[in-house]
Structure formats: C-alpha cells, structure tokens
Write a structure and sequence with these properties.
22% strand; Aminopeptidase; 7-stranded mixed β-sheet; Rossmann fold; 6-stranded parallel β-sheet
Length: 483
Amino acid sequence: MRMLALAQAWQRRGGKVHFAATEMPPLLVSRIRDEQIDVTLLGGVDDTVIRRGSEQDAALTAALARQLGAAWVVADGYVFDGPFQNTIRQAALRCAIVTDFDFCKSWDCDLILNQNPHAIQEPYASSVDGCKRLLGTQFVLLRREFLDKEAVAEARGVDEPRRLLITLGGSDPEDATGLILQLLAGWKHSELSIRVIVGAANPHRRHLEELAAMSKHRVELLVNVQDMPRQYQWADGIVSAGGSSCWEWLYFGLPGAIVVIADNQAPIYRELTSVGAATGLGTLESLQTEESAAREALEQFLERVHPGQRDPTRYRHLVDGHGASRVAAALDSGVWLRCATENDRQLYFDWANDPDVRLNSLCSDKIEWQSHCEWFDRQLATTDARLLVGMREDRPVGQIRFNRTHEDEWNVGFSVANDARGTGVGKELVRLGTGWMSHERLSPLVATVKVGNQASARCFIRLGWAEIPTDDSTLLRFRLATC
C-alpha cells in the first residue's frame, strides 16, 4: 500500500500512474482503480502466472512501460534484484527500487528508497552514476487517507477509560493478539476500552472472541477495518507489530508499544525503542517464554497512556507526512508543494514585501504586519483559498495561492524566493499548483499579470494557459479551463 501513497503524490503533481503486477488480489485491484489508476496483470503464455521479479517479469514490465511512455518504473520488493533493474534500464527507462534493507551487492538502478531509520547506516553500493539514495523516515510514504484526516485525539472527559488499539498484522498466524489480550487481563488499576483490529485471514478469530467475552475490560473486535485513521483518532495508545504501520500511528502522535512478529521488523523495533518513540514488548517468542517481563513492560506503558492527552505533533520529527511528496519530487524536478501553516506567517510576509514582488504586484504598496496577519489567518481558515509553499528538498523556494472568485473561478498568484529566481522554480510552482488543483477537481483557473511582468506571463503561456481579453491595457489575463 505504500506504493499507493507514492502514486497519490505523483497524481497530485499532475502525473499519471499505472500499476503492473504478476498477480494481485481483486479487492486491491478495485482499491487502486478507485483512485483513477489503471492496473495491468502481467501474464505468461496462456495467461499463466509468472514469477515476480523474474527475467520474464522484467521484460514484460519494460515493454508495458515503453508502451505507456512511462518516465519511471518503480518496483517494491526484495525480488527486484540487479538483473531486473538492469533489464529496465537497458530499455531506456529509469528504475527506482523501494526496499527495507540493502539486499543487492551492487544496485543497478537510478533511485533507491528505504524509509526506515536504519537505512542511513547501510551502504547501498551502486554501479549507476548519480544514483539517488532516499534513506530515512523523512521519506515515509503515507497514503492520502492519513494525511487528510486531522491527527487529533477525540475530545472527551478524563474520567473515561483509557482507549487502547491493538493491531498485530492481517493474518497473525501465531496469535500474538491473543497473547496481548491475556497479558492485559492482569491490569488491575482501571478498566480499559480496547479495540482489536482483526484481519480477514486471522485463523484465531474464535479464540479472540472468547478472550473478549471473558475480559473484565471493554473489548471490541473490528474485522476488515477500512478506515484506520478513524481508529488512530479514537485511541489513546496502541499495541502494534513493529512493521511499517508504525509510521501511521506515530504520525497521529499515539504512544505505542511494539512487538516483533517478523524478522524484518527488528530494525524498526530497535530504532523506535532506542529513541523512546515506543515501548518494546520483545518478540513473539518472548511474549510466550518471558511472560512476567512482557506484562511488566506493558503495564509500564499503560501507566503513561492518559485519556485525550496525546500530542499529535510529538513524533513529527520522525514522520512529518511529506515523505511521499519528497519521493515524487526526487523522481521529477526536485520541487514539491506543501500546505501553508501558521508557522509560515513570517515567511509569507517577507516574501510579500520583497521589492521585486511588490513591483510586480497589482497593488505595489508595502504591506503592514498587522494587515498581513489578518489576511494570512483568513486565508488559512477559509475553504475558498489554497495556500501552498514550494519546497526544493526541505528549503522553501516560493509560494502559489488560489482564491475562489465571485464567478466561481480560482484566481492564482505566485512568487519565487529571491535566491531561487532564474532556476525555473516559477514555472514549477504553476505546473505543480495546477496539478494540485486538478487533483482536487477545482477549476477553472485564472491569472492576472502586469504587462511588464514578462517572467510570470511566460510561465502561464509555456504551460498552455490561454490569454483572454481584458479592458485594461496594463494587464494580461490568462485562463485554464480544465486542469
């Protein structure tokens, strides 16, 4: 599903995405197509299933990518080794690999992405000059459903029971969930309100139902949950497997206790417990053989969980929600957009009063701080405005904003930071801003430019905006009917 997060970020840039796989569950195919993304299932002779990552898979993938005119082939998994990568690049395509560890002796791709904290300690030796390495949690791929929901806790009274969410994988073949529920039975300090996420493939559902019925706590079993952000909003704390889902609940600021139920989760477990971002409960085996230690760790964790008191921004230094945008930008021009926040108030003020910006503005008067603050706060509060900051890597390089007019059009204005001018950032702001509005299905877009501001006029013309008549000879007007 992290590939869906990257696909959404690419679409928001105005790009097109196509998924290819040797096999894929029908429900996942439907989920992807709901995002207006096409899916191709690569079959062998007589539509037989071919081995993922095989020579045949690489050849069919390259052929499909060439047919579609794709700029990149992005593959996620440990089977996409050097020969697979080489086949893609030999077809004059750029290749990116998403991985959780350094499994190639020599990488033969153009970009390597590992969103895990331990990645920065691995070498990722590459035979490709200029191979980009995106390593660490600043590149965590979160789907839009997590980013579009406010990462806040539900408001409620402090006298309510602690709310604990338990999610230990879709299948949980060894019944780690049952072990956790049994450990929680020993918690005597207060009643807990517990929600257990149960995957459709979990073979222990009947046992979990029995444990829930016997528990002194309030225990709900939720099967095939489709809205995980809502569950994170509900919870005060979480018991989780040590896999990539950790980045989701960390983004929501949840205190977490984690269990290693698969070998590839151990590096994430070590990192999160060492920096104090999670409480370690050990491995699945230790839950069984060192029950008293596991119970003590779990009880110490629960002591730190308080109703409605978590801080949604607590772990933003690990996961800030912009990872997918950064990765999509690395596959493209390097520039990406984020929504402006109240922390950008001073930045916008400084940009707005730049002498060149004032000269090219429709009203050239200097802007006073108080009036700027009132304007900026109104812009953030209304649904009739979109304020977006352009970023290159993690440095602000400009802004683009859209305001709904009385004619139900969206008027655009943009400016480039002084030290980023002459580098093509202006055109990128307009291109990416147009893609953003298209993704939100907001149109038409219009722009008004002073005749003397030829740099801005060229941006719109080169991106296909149509010049439209105006009665004012000092102004140029542009319109983009559909994004």
